[in-house]
Amino acid sequence: MSARFTGKVAIVTGSSSGIGQSIAVRLASEGASVVIDYHSNPEGAEETQKKIAAAGGGKTITVKADVTIMDDVKNLVEQAWQQLGSCDILVNNAGVEKHAPFWEATESDYDLVLGTNLKAPFFLTQRFVQKLMEAKKPGRVINISSVHEDMVFPNFASYCAAKGGIRMLMRDLAMELGPLGITVNNVAPGAINTPINASLLEDKPKLNALLNNIPLGRLGTPEDVASLVAFLASDEAAYVTGSTYFVDGGLIRNYKEQ
Ligand code: NAD
């Protein structure tokens, strides 16, 4: 694969599994040095590191950072600069969802979902931008949002609130950060085959109903998402900012308000 990211440094949050792991492997396999962030799964981070090595990818460092903890957020960006000398690309990927009818949703689940999916990208991006401003460098921010930044998801109200929030955060930051040469975009996956969907994958009737709503007739793979992220992080997307790009097999086009 060509080395589009030689000399670039990328942070990928939540890169010990699923989509984040594939993004880390993809960027590194095209020459980026990558900060692998993990929360509670060091084995997964090691697996990411091994996959990158097997792909002949760039340099990696592994940092344990819970993105809901602001000191960890600061340290994650610091480690990129201290150990890899820069940080050009930030992929806000870490995410969680909690299932509950609205009237049963708890404050702690709300705080976890909003903290991980919205507050963390807000302050991680802020720290990323502060460091770029000091260094007078351009940069790329890519948020992994979801079709649910736009499409309802009954029983996942906090997840919808967070992903809807990151849609407007991205639009606002594209305006504020454009003059600094920093682009900001969202990648919105549909149904992707990852651990976050473990219970859906085991529920055949539910899975088949979902597949019937996906024009391309299959779930997405983490690699489907990673290739779009790689495009947005590359020089080919130099003039692209302030939008959401869906990678969902057409699911969102097949969607009607319920
Ligand atoms: P996943 O569960 O494999 O990945 C989530 C990652 O986030 C894990 O590595 C986890 O450790 C990490 N994480 C969670 N809380 C964290 C914290 N506090 N600090 C640091 N890391 C933390 O699932 P995935 O499908 O790969 O999800 C990745 C992103 O894609 C999420 O933002 C999710 O909302 C989004 N997404 C996934 C799908 C899908 O169908 N899989 C669809 C739309 C959007």
Care to describe what's here?
The chain has 258 residues and is an alpha/beta fold. It has a single domain, classed as Rossmann fold (3-Layer(aba) Sandwich). The chain is 45% helix and 14% strand. The protein contains 8 helices and 7 strands; from the N terminus they run E-H-E-H-E-H-E-H-E-H-E-H-H-H-E. The chain is globular and about 50 Å long. 46% of the residues are buried. The model has no long low-confidence stretch (mean pLDDT 96). Nicotinamide-adenine-dinucleotide is lined by residues 13-14, 16-20, 37, 39, 41, 66-68, 93-96, 116, 144, 146, 189, 191-192, 194-197. The site of nicotinamide-adenine-dinucleotide has 27 residues, from helix 1.
Average residue-wise pLDDT: 96
* Strand/helix succession: EHEHEHEHEHEHHHE
The strand count comes to 7
Shape: globular
CATH superfamily: NAD(P)-binding Rossmann-like Domain
The poorly predicted ranges are: none
Largest sheet: 7 strands, parallel
Assembly state here?
Answer: single chain
CATH third-level topology: Rossmann fold
Keywords: Oxidoreductase
GO molecular function, one term: oxidoreductase activity
InterPro entries: NAD(P)-bd_dom_sf (IPR036291), Sc_DH/Rdtase_CS (IPR020904), SDR_fam (IPR002347)
Organism: Granulicella tundricola (strain ATCC BAA-1859 / DSM 23138 / MP5ACTX9)
Break the fold down into its secondary structure elements and pairings.
Elements: E1 9-12, H1 18-29, E2 33-38, H2 42-54, E3 60-64, H3 70-84, E4 89-92, H4 107-135, E5 139-144, H5 157-177, E6 182-189, H6 198-202, H7 204-212, H8 222-233, E7 244-247
Parallel strand pairs: 1-2, 1-4, 2-3, 4-5, 5-6, 6-7
GO molecular function: oxidoreductase activity
Protein name: Short-chain dehydrogenase/reductase SDR
Organism: Granulicella tundricola (strain ATCC BAA-1859 / DSM 23138 / MP5ACTX9)
